[in-house]
């Protein structure tokens, strides 16, 4: 199975923003236990490269770790050298896509309009992150997917358990899920980690059922 297929099969990409070095492994393990095996660690997080290295070294093939909010090729290369297996961007930057593909890493740039989505795909994107998806909802994704069925779409932004199934049924190959799954606004203790595993399990099951 290819790494891309592994990400698509998992159905959920956990967007981890604001993690600390002493909490990242516990969070990654709790997500893995709940069945979420694709983890995006956003690059504006302090010491992000060491976080990517830490999770990659500790969990190995159990999870696919990538970098998110990557705005330029220099950052992409640094993340790849740290062990990132995919690069998420909020925008379409051709140089970032090209560098990512040069290293054989999965490129998932962000786009919103049909023109941006096609542009990203033509530049070599493996999957296009439809962002911010929550502003327009599952109906928009379905309308875009209609004329562009060849482009794998991953809505991100505003995804939660109440609408996850609708996005899958609208044509999403997977979902990028942020604060409705992982949030550091509360204390990361045993009770939080137990809830995190349960929420992860609920997301995975929701995707599975929506796929039929």
What is the topological layout?
Blueprint lengths: L2 H8 L1 E5 L7 H10 L4 E5 L5 H12 L4 E5 L4 H9 L4 E3 L5 H9 L3 E3 L1 E2 L2 H9 L5 E3 L7 H8 L7 E3 L8 H6 L5 E3 L12 H22 L1
Parallel strand pairs: 1-2, 1-9, 2-3, 4-5, 6-7, 7-8
Structural class: alpha/beta
CATH topology: TIM Barrel
The CATH H-level homologous superfamily: Aldolase class I
Give me the Rg, rounded: 16 Å
The helicity comes to 40-55%
What quaternary form is this? single chain
Distance between the termini: 21 Å
What number of domains? 1
SSE pattern: HEHEHEHEHEEHEHEHEH
Q: What can you tell me about this protein's structure?
A:
The chain has 9 helices and 9 strands. By secondary structure, the protein is an alpha/beta fold. The strands form 3 sheets. Strands 3-2-1-9 form a 4-stranded parallel sheet, with helices on both faces. Strands 6-7-8 form a 3-stranded parallel sheet, covered by helices on one side. Strands 4-5 form a two-stranded parallel ribbon. α6 links the parallel β6 and β7. α2 packs across α3 and α2 packs across α9.
Short description:
With 212 residues, the chain is an alpha/beta fold. It contains 9 helices and 9 strands.
Keywords:
212 residues, alpha/beta, TIM Barrel, four-stranded parallel beta sheet, three-stranded parallel beta sheet, 9 helices, 15% strand
């Amino acid at each position: 199975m290819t790494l891309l297929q592994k990400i698509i099969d998992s159905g959920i990409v956990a967007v981890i923003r604001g993690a600390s070095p002493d909490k990242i492994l516990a969070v990654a393990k709790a997500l893995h236990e709940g069945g979420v095996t694709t983890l995006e660690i956003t690059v504006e997080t302090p010491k992000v490269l060491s976080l990517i290295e830490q999770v990659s070294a500790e969990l190995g093939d159990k999870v696919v770790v990538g970098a998110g909010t990557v705005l330029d090729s220099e950052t992409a290369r640094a993340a790849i050298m740290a062990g990132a297996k995919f690069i998420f961007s909020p925008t379409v930057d051709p140089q970032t896509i090209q560098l990512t593909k040069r290293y054989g890493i999965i490129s998932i740039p962000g786009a919103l309009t049909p023109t941006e989505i096609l542009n990203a795909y033509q530049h070599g994107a493996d999957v296009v992150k439809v962002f911010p998806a929550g502003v327009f909802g599952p109906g928009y994704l379905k309308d875009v997917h209609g004329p562009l069925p060849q482009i794998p779409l991953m809505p991100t932004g505003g995804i939660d358990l109440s609408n996850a199934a609708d996005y899958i049924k609208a044509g999403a190959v997977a979902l990028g899920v942020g604060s409705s799954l992982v949030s550091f606004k509360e204390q990361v203790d045993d009770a939080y980690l137990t809830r995190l595993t349960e929420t992860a399990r609920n997301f995975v099951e929701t995707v599975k059922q929506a796929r039929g």
